[in-house]
Task: structure prediction
Amino acid sequence: MRWAPAVVVPAAIAAAVIVAPLAAGASDLPVKSPADVLRLVAASDTRSFSGTVSQSSDLGLPDLPVSATKGTDGGAAGLLELALADHTAKVWVDGPSKVRVQVLDRLAERDAIRNGSDLWLYQSSGEKVLHATVPAHSEKTPAPDATALTPSQLAQRFLDAVDPSTQVTLGSDTSVAGRDAYDLVLKPKATTTLIGSVSIAVDGKTGIPLKVAVTARGASSPAFEAGFTAFSDQRPDASVFSFTPPKGASVTEQALPKGDSAGKGAHEHPKPTVTGTGWATIVALPAGSAPSSVADDPLFAQLTQPVDGGRALSSSVVSVLVTADGRVLAGSVPVSALQAAAAQPAPQASGQ
Result:
């Protein structure tokens, strides 16, 4: 169930650039090529911004029952609900050590806050607070990135790993949250992937991705979309990142691993193996990665279907296969491709 976030943006997806002819925009933005826009994103030095993000998804999966997510403490059901349901969130960022994301639910809210070395997760439903301290000199936050569902982070997942498997072009210039933006369009060349295209609206001033839309092959509307409806590149007030647990709230302290000790010892996560290339890449976790108790979870049964070799979650843009021996395979490919991969001898783990 740790693969729930992969329903949104599979880490297996890779994007590349083929320089196309210059595209003339309808706005006042300077004319640029796709490569120019990629460089604009890479060179962006805007470290402080804020705004409101709207997220919507139509992945072809059954709706989660209210009982599955009501009162959730951020476990698998909570992650799935956050990934699959429509949400509005407020985002404040002032460098890597000051981040706040506030997800607004009906009559409730969820906050993820990093203020220096303090990490806070707050859920107003049930008045639950989780606190952790980031180890000194930690290069990476040893906890889920609070901005993982913002357009900037989603877009970067597609742009980080580039190879020649993608055609990259520019659509017509667009406007997002009142700001002129370039429309960077990624289309896989392979026909073996479920992804039809990914559209990334890049702010013409800051180079920050303002909106991401993922469309399934053969579809006319996005399966997943996240974009700013309001955006400011001004530094947020420092008070935004201050958090004091509400009176009467239950506060749980959680220890985080220190530096290079992360991932070592008894709590080391299974190492994935990677097969295939580009958009048809499949990531697999070894036998035993999915505990036997998962099969008894009513939510797991509702979201998956029995197939030869196990149970599969099949959406319009990503598939996940959990085999009878607890292996987990995922990718933006049909379930049949995962079944074929599961039948092959396991390659050596990548260690990443």
Remarks:
- The two ends are 19 Å apart (CA to CA).
- The CA atoms of residues 144 and 196 lie 28 Å apart.
